[in-house]
Amino acid sequence: MTALQISSSPWLSTAIARIEADYLRSADTHLIPLPLPEFAAHGIDFYLKDESTHPTGSLKHRLARSLFLYALCNGLIHESSTIVEASSGSTAVSEAYFARLLGLPFVAVMPRSTSPEKVAQIEFYGGRCHWVESAVQVYDEARKVALETGGHYMDQFTYAERATDWRGNNNIAESMFSQMARERHPVPRWIVVGAGTGGTSATIGRYVRYQRHNSQLCVADPVGSVFSAYHRTGDVSLTGAGSRIEGIGRPRVEASFIRTVIDRMVDVADVDSLAAMQALSQLLGRKVGPSTGTNLVGMLTLAHEMLARGEQGSILSLLCDSGERYLPTYHNADWVHAKMGDCTAATRQMNRLMRPAQA
Asked: Could you give all domains of the chain from N- to C-terminal order, each with its CATH number?
Protein backbone atom coordinates (compact mmCIF):
# COMPACT_ATOMS: atom_id res chain seq x y z
CA MET A 1 0.00 0.00 0.00
CA THR A 2 1.50 3.37 -0.98
CA ALA A 3 1.60 6.47 1.21
CA LEU A 4 -1.11 8.07 -0.95
CA GLN A 5 -3.34 5.04 -0.53
CA ILE A 6 -2.75 5.04 3.22
CA SER A 7 -3.67 8.74 3.54
CA SER A 8 -6.97 8.17 1.73
CA SER A 9 -7.74 4.76 3.22
CA PRO A 10 -11.30 4.18 4.49
CA TRP A 11 -9.75 1.93 7.15
CA LEU A 12 -7.62 4.83 8.43
CA SER A 13 -10.65 7.09 8.68
CA THR A 14 -12.57 4.41 10.57
CA ALA A 15 -9.63 3.71 12.90
CA ILE A 16 -9.26 7.36 13.91
CA ALA A 17 -13.04 7.67 14.33
CA ARG A 18 -13.07 4.65 16.67
CA ILE A 19 -10.34 6.12 18.87
CA GLU A 20 -12.06 9.50 18.99
CA ALA A 21 -15.40 7.86 19.83
CA ASP A 22 -13.72 5.94 22.65
CA TYR A 23 -12.32 9.23 23.95
CA LEU A 24 -15.72 10.90 23.92
CA ARG A 25 -17.18 7.99 25.90
CA SER A 26 -14.60 8.54 28.65
CA ALA A 27 -15.03 11.08 31.42
CA ASP A 28 -12.10 13.05 32.81
CA THR A 29 -10.25 11.62 35.81
CA HIS A 30 -10.93 12.92 39.31
CA LEU A 31 -8.77 15.34 41.28
CA ILE A 32 -8.54 14.13 44.88
CA PRO A 33 -7.60 16.42 47.79
CA LEU A 34 -5.46 14.52 50.30
CA PRO A 35 -6.72 14.77 53.89
CA LEU A 36 -3.57 16.08 55.60
CA PRO A 37 -5.08 18.74 57.89
CA GLU A 38 -1.85 19.51 59.78
CA PHE A 39 -0.21 20.62 56.55
CA ALA A 40 -3.38 22.46 55.52
CA ALA A 41 -3.20 24.44 58.76
CA HIS A 42 0.18 25.71 57.55
CA GLY A 43 -1.27 26.67 54.16
CA ILE A 44 -0.05 23.66 52.19
CA ASP A 45 -2.58 21.55 50.28
CA PHE A 46 -2.02 18.22 48.51
CA TYR A 47 -3.85 16.84 45.46
CA LEU A 48 -3.67 13.68 43.37
CA LYS A 49 -5.13 13.34 39.90
CA ASP A 50 -6.54 9.82 39.88
CA GLU A 51 -5.42 8.24 36.61
CA SER A 52 -6.46 4.77 37.77
CA THR A 53 -10.03 5.48 36.59
CA HIS A 54 -9.17 5.31 32.88
CA PRO A 55 -10.70 2.32 31.02
CA THR A 56 -7.35 0.48 31.17
CA GLY A 57 -6.63 1.53 34.73
CA SER A 58 -3.59 3.80 34.53
CA LEU A 59 -2.01 7.03 33.36
CA LYS A 60 -0.70 5.16 30.30
CA HIS A 61 -4.17 5.14 28.73
CA ARG A 62 -3.58 8.75 27.67
CA LEU A 63 -0.18 7.88 26.20
CA ALA A 64 -1.46 4.85 24.29
CA ARG A 65 -4.27 6.88 22.70
CA SER A 66 -1.78 9.56 21.63
CA LEU A 67 0.71 7.02 20.28
CA PHE A 68 -1.94 5.30 18.17
CA LEU A 69 -3.21 8.58 16.72
CA TYR A 70 0.36 9.69 16.03
CA ALA A 71 1.18 6.44 14.24
CA LEU A 72 -2.07 6.45 12.28
CA CYS A 73 -1.77 10.04 11.13
CA ASN A 74 1.87 9.51 10.14
CA GLY A 75 0.97 6.47 8.05
CA LEU A 76 3.00 4.11 10.23
CA ILE A 77 0.29 1.51 10.85
CA HIS A 78 -2.39 0.11 8.59
CA GLU A 79 -5.12 -2.52 8.67
CA SER A 80 -2.74 -5.49 8.56
CA SER A 81 -0.15 -4.15 11.05
CA THR A 82 0.98 -6.06 14.10
CA ILE A 83 1.54 -3.56 16.92
CA VAL A 84 4.68 -4.18 19.01
CA GLU A 85 5.70 -2.31 22.16
CA ALA A 86 8.52 -2.44 24.70
CA SER A 87 6.93 -1.97 28.11
CA SER A 88 7.09 -2.73 31.81
CA GLY A 89 3.36 -3.40 31.74
CA SER A 90 0.94 -0.49 31.96
CA THR A 91 1.60 0.97 28.51
CA ALA A 92 1.25 -2.51 27.05
CA VAL A 93 -2.13 -2.97 28.76
CA SER A 94 -3.39 0.29 27.29
CA GLU A 95 -1.96 -0.35 23.83
CA ALA A 96 -3.51 -3.84 23.81
CA TYR A 97 -6.87 -2.16 24.48
CA PHE A 98 -6.52 0.19 21.50
CA ALA A 99 -5.13 -2.55 19.25
CA ARG A 100 -8.23 -4.63 20.00
CA LEU A 101 -10.40 -1.57 19.30
CA LEU A 102 -8.87 -1.43 15.81
CA GLY A 103 -8.81 -5.19 15.26
CA LEU A 104 -4.99 -5.36 15.19
CA PRO A 105 -2.74 -8.02 16.77
CA PHE A 106 -0.56 -6.79 19.62
CA VAL A 107 2.72 -8.07 21.08
CA ALA A 108 4.17 -6.71 24.35
CA VAL A 109 7.91 -7.18 24.88
CA MET A 110 8.38 -7.11 28.65
CA PRO A 111 10.72 -8.21 31.46
CA ARG A 112 9.72 -11.43 33.19
CA SER A 113 9.37 -9.47 36.43
CA THR A 114 6.22 -7.71 35.17
CA SER A 115 3.31 -8.23 37.56
CA PRO A 116 0.97 -11.16 36.74
CA GLU A 117 -2.05 -8.85 36.93
CA LYS A 118 -0.71 -6.70 34.08
CA VAL A 119 0.04 -9.81 32.03
CA ALA A 120 -3.52 -11.02 32.56
CA GLN A 121 -4.91 -7.66 31.42
CA ILE A 122 -2.79 -7.65 28.27
CA GLU A 123 -4.03 -11.13 27.43
CA PHE A 124 -7.62 -10.12 28.28
CA TYR A 125 -7.43 -7.48 25.54
CA GLY A 126 -6.10 -10.07 23.09
CA GLY A 127 -2.42 -9.18 23.35
CA ARG A 128 0.52 -11.57 23.47
CA CYS A 129 3.48 -11.27 25.84
CA HIS A 130 7.03 -11.80 24.61
CA TRP A 131 9.52 -12.14 27.45
CA VAL A 132 13.05 -10.85 28.03
CA GLU A 133 15.14 -11.26 31.16
CA SER A 134 15.88 -7.60 31.90
CA ALA A 135 14.60 -4.13 31.06
CA VAL A 136 17.68 -3.28 28.97
CA GLN A 137 16.75 -5.99 26.45
CA VAL A 138 13.26 -4.74 25.58
CA TYR A 139 14.30 -2.22 22.91
CA ASP A 140 16.25 -4.47 20.55
CA GLU A 141 13.88 -7.39 21.07
CA ALA A 142 10.84 -5.23 20.23
CA ARG A 143 12.50 -4.10 17.00
CA LYS A 144 13.27 -7.74 16.19
CA VAL A 145 9.69 -8.86 16.82
CA ALA A 146 8.33 -6.02 14.69
CA LEU A 147 10.66 -7.01 11.85
CA GLU A 148 9.74 -10.69 12.10
CA THR A 149 5.99 -9.97 12.08
CA GLY A 150 6.12 -7.20 9.50
CA GLY A 151 4.64 -5.00 12.19
CA HIS A 152 5.18 -1.57 13.70
CA TYR A 153 7.23 -0.92 16.84
CA MET A 154 5.37 1.89 18.63
CA ASP A 155 8.50 2.86 20.67
CA GLN A 156 6.93 4.79 23.51
CA PHE A 157 10.36 5.76 24.82
CA THR A 158 11.07 7.81 21.70
CA TYR A 159 7.65 9.13 20.71
CA ALA A 160 5.92 9.83 24.05
CA GLU A 161 7.06 13.44 24.22
CA ARG A 162 5.95 14.31 20.70
CA ALA A 163 2.71 12.31 20.36
CA THR A 164 0.77 14.47 22.83
CA ASP A 165 -0.28 18.05 22.06
CA TRP A 166 1.41 19.82 24.99
CA ARG A 167 -0.23 23.20 24.27
CA GLY A 168 -3.64 21.94 25.38
CA ASN A 169 -6.34 19.94 23.59
CA ASN A 170 -7.44 18.51 26.95
CA ASN A 171 -4.08 16.99 27.76
CA ILE A 172 -3.34 16.02 31.35
CA ALA A 173 -1.79 19.40 32.20
CA GLU A 174 -4.73 21.42 30.92
CA SER A 175 -7.08 19.14 32.84
CA MET A 176 -5.09 19.60 36.05
CA PHE A 177 -5.19 23.38 35.95
CA SER A 178 -8.89 23.45 35.02
CA GLN A 179 -9.75 21.23 37.98
CA MET A 180 -7.65 23.33 40.37
CA ALA A 181 -9.41 26.59 39.42
CA ARG A 182 -11.64 26.83 42.54
CA GLU A 183 -9.10 25.61 45.09
CA ARG A 184 -7.45 27.72 47.79
CA HIS A 185 -4.18 27.77 45.83
CA PRO A 186 -5.37 27.25 42.24
CA VAL A 187 -1.94 27.44 40.61
CA PRO A 188 0.20 24.66 42.11
CA ARG A 189 3.50 25.66 43.64
CA TRP A 190 4.84 22.24 42.60
CA ILE A 191 3.71 19.48 40.26
CA VAL A 192 5.33 16.12 41.01
CA VAL A 193 5.48 13.22 38.57
CA GLY A 194 7.53 10.11 37.98
CA ALA A 195 9.16 9.33 34.65
CA GLY A 196 9.21 6.14 32.63
CA THR A 197 9.23 7.45 29.08
CA GLY A 198 9.37 11.09 30.18
CA GLY A 199 6.29 11.92 28.13
CA THR A 200 4.18 13.13 31.06
CA SER A 201 6.89 15.37 32.48
CA ALA A 202 7.56 16.78 29.00
CA THR A 203 3.87 17.55 28.43
CA ILE A 204 3.39 19.20 31.83
CA GLY A 205 6.66 21.11 31.78
CA ARG A 206 6.01 22.55 28.33
CA TYR A 207 2.40 23.40 29.14
CA VAL A 208 3.40 25.27 32.31
CA ARG A 209 5.85 27.40 30.37
CA TYR A 210 3.48 27.95 27.45
CA GLN A 211 0.70 29.14 29.77
CA ARG A 212 3.19 31.16 31.90
CA HIS A 213 2.04 29.54 35.13
CA ASN A 214 4.06 30.15 38.27
CA SER A 215 4.46 26.41 38.91
CA GLN A 216 7.57 24.27 39.06
CA LEU A 217 7.92 20.68 37.94
CA CYS A 218 9.59 17.98 40.04
CA VAL A 219 10.34 14.43 38.92
CA ALA A 220 10.51 11.87 41.73
CA ASP A 221 13.00 9.31 40.47
CA PRO A 222 13.59 5.85 41.95
CA VAL A 223 17.06 4.70 42.89
CA GLY A 224 18.64 2.80 39.99
CA SER A 225 17.18 5.08 37.33
CA VAL A 226 19.57 7.18 35.23
CA PHE A 227 17.21 10.14 34.86
CA SER A 228 18.37 12.02 37.96
CA ALA A 229 22.03 11.79 37.00
CA TYR A 230 21.18 12.77 33.42
CA HIS A 231 19.21 15.79 34.64
CA ARG A 232 22.26 16.85 36.64
CA THR A 233 24.96 16.19 34.02
CA GLY A 234 23.31 16.13 30.59
CA ASP A 235 25.32 13.01 29.73
CA VAL A 236 23.17 10.98 27.31
CA SER A 237 25.55 8.01 27.47
CA LEU A 238 24.69 7.21 31.09
CA THR A 239 23.45 3.72 31.93
CA GLY A 240 22.31 2.14 35.16
CA ALA A 241 20.73 -0.87 36.77
CA GLY A 242 17.20 0.36 36.15
CA SER A 243 14.41 0.75 38.65
CA ARG A 244 12.72 -1.83 40.86
CA ILE A 245 9.63 0.39 41.05
CA GLU A 246 7.53 -0.87 38.15
CA GLY A 247 6.59 1.69 35.53
CA ILE A 248 9.08 4.46 36.33
CA GLY A 249 12.83 4.94 36.05
CA ARG A 250 14.98 3.55 33.24
CA PRO A 251 18.42 1.92 32.82
CA ARG A 252 19.30 4.33 30.00
CA VAL A 253 18.47 7.89 28.98
CA GLU A 254 15.27 7.88 26.92
CA ALA A 255 14.67 10.27 24.01
CA SER A 256 11.33 11.39 25.48
CA PHE A 257 12.86 12.53 28.78
CA ILE A 258 13.35 16.29 28.28
CA ARG A 259 15.60 17.43 31.13
CA THR A 260 15.31 21.14 30.34
CA VAL A 261 11.62 21.38 31.30
CA ILE A 262 12.22 19.85 34.76
CA ASP A 263 13.04 22.15 37.69
CA ARG A 264 13.90 19.59 40.33
CA MET A 265 14.66 15.89 40.78
CA VAL A 266 14.09 13.99 44.03
CA ASP A 267 15.81 10.61 44.40
CA VAL A 268 13.62 8.07 46.20
CA ALA A 269 14.80 4.79 47.72
CA ASP A 270 12.68 1.73 46.92
CA VAL A 271 11.76 1.11 50.56
CA ASP A 272 10.62 4.73 50.88
CA SER A 273 8.37 4.34 47.83
CA LEU A 274 6.78 1.25 49.35
CA ALA A 275 6.35 2.83 52.78
CA ALA A 276 4.66 5.81 51.13
CA MET A 277 2.50 3.49 49.02
CA GLN A 278 1.24 1.78 52.19
CA ALA A 279 0.69 5.06 54.04
CA LEU A 280 -1.27 6.55 51.14
CA SER A 281 -3.33 3.37 50.74
CA GLN A 282 -4.36 3.68 54.40
CA LEU A 283 -5.07 7.41 54.03
CA LEU A 284 -7.33 6.89 51.00
CA GLY A 285 -8.91 3.61 52.09
CA ARG A 286 -7.87 1.85 48.87
CA LYS A 287 -4.65 0.46 47.51
CA VAL A 288 -2.40 2.46 45.20
CA GLY A 289 0.60 1.34 43.15
CA PRO A 290 4.29 1.79 44.05
CA SER A 291 4.99 4.62 41.60
CA THR A 292 2.29 6.67 43.35
CA GLY A 293 4.24 6.06 46.56
CA THR A 294 7.32 7.48 44.84
CA ASN A 295 5.29 10.57 43.94
CA LEU A 296 4.14 11.00 47.54
CA VAL A 297 7.73 10.97 48.81
CA GLY A 298 8.50 13.76 46.37
CA MET A 299 5.45 15.74 47.47
CA LEU A 300 6.27 15.44 51.16
CA THR A 301 9.93 16.33 50.58
CA LEU A 302 8.88 19.55 48.86
CA ALA A 303 6.24 20.30 51.49
CA HIS A 304 8.77 20.18 54.31
CA GLU A 305 11.07 22.47 52.33
CA MET A 306 8.18 24.90 51.88
CA LEU A 307 7.45 24.78 55.60
CA ALA A 308 11.07 25.58 56.39
CA ARG A 309 10.90 28.64 54.13
CA GLY A 310 7.50 29.73 55.45
CA GLU A 311 5.83 29.23 52.06
CA GLN A 312 2.24 28.32 51.33
CA GLY A 313 0.71 26.74 48.24
CA SER A 314 -0.55 23.56 46.66
CA ILE A 315 1.35 20.46 45.56
CA LEU A 316 -0.20 18.34 42.82
CA SER A 317 0.74 14.86 41.66
CA LEU A 318 -0.68 11.72 40.06
CA LEU A 319 -2.27 8.54 41.36
CA CYS A 320 -0.78 6.50 38.55
CA ASP A 321 -2.63 3.19 38.90
CA SER A 322 -4.46 0.95 41.32
CA GLY A 323 -2.66 -1.18 43.87
CA GLU A 324 -4.83 -4.14 42.89
CA ARG A 325 -2.34 -4.76 40.09
CA TYR A 326 0.37 -5.42 42.65
CA LEU A 327 -1.27 -7.64 45.26
CA PRO A 328 1.17 -10.57 44.82
CA THR A 329 4.20 -8.25 44.71
CA TYR A 330 4.50 -4.77 46.22
CA HIS A 331 1.45 -5.31 48.48
CA ASN A 332 2.71 -8.72 49.63
CA ALA A 333 4.87 -8.44 52.77
CA ASP A 334 6.82 -11.65 52.10
CA TRP A 335 7.60 -10.63 48.51
CA VAL A 336 8.69 -7.15 49.62
CA HIS A 337 10.99 -8.52 52.32
CA ALA A 338 12.58 -10.96 49.87
CA LYS A 339 12.96 -8.50 46.97
CA MET A 340 13.29 -5.09 48.62
CA GLY A 341 14.43 -5.75 52.18
CA ASP A 342 13.22 -4.50 55.54
CA CYS A 343 10.94 -1.45 55.28
CA THR A 344 10.57 -0.87 59.04
CA ALA A 345 12.83 2.18 59.22
CA ALA A 346 11.28 3.61 56.05
CA THR A 347 7.80 3.21 57.55
CA ARG A 348 8.86 5.12 60.68
CA GLN A 349 10.36 7.86 58.53
CA MET A 350 7.18 8.06 56.46
CA ASN A 351 5.12 8.49 59.62
CA ARG A 352 7.35 11.44 60.52
CA LEU A 353 7.10 12.98 57.05
CA MET A 354 3.30 12.82 57.15
CA ARG A 355 3.26 15.16 60.15
CA PRO A 356 4.67 18.69 59.73
CA ALA A 357 5.12 19.18 63.49
CA GLN A 358 7.80 16.48 63.40
CA ALA A 359 9.75 17.95 60.48
From this structure: 23-54+165-354 (3.40.50.1100), 60-160 (3.40.50.1100)
What's residue 348's pLDDT?
A: 96
The 10 Å Cβ neighbour count of residue 68 is: 27
pLDDT digits (tens, 9 = 90+) for 346-359: 999 999 999 996 54
**Structure confidence at residue 284 (pLDDT):** 97
d(CA 137, CA 118): 19
Max Cα-Cα span within the chain? 67
Q: Is 242 helix (H, G, I), strand (E, B) or coil?
A: coil
Q: How far is CA 270 from the centre of its chain?
A: 17
Average pLDDT, whole number, for the chain? 94
**349 three-state secondary structure:** helix
Q: What order do you get walking across the sheet with 264-268 strand by strand?
A: 31-33, 44-50, 313-319, 190-193, 216-222, 264-268
**What DSSP letter does each residue of 261-279 carry, written as one string?**
G--EEEEE-HHHHHHHHHH
Distance CA(57)–CA(161), nearest Å, equals 21
Asked if residues 57 and 93 have their Cβ atoms less than 8 Å apart, the reply is yes
Distance of CA 316 to CAs 177, 285, 291, Å? 10, 19, 15
Which stretches within 150-289 are classed as H helix? 156-163, 172-179, 199-211, 227-233, 270-284
CA distance 57 to 333: 24
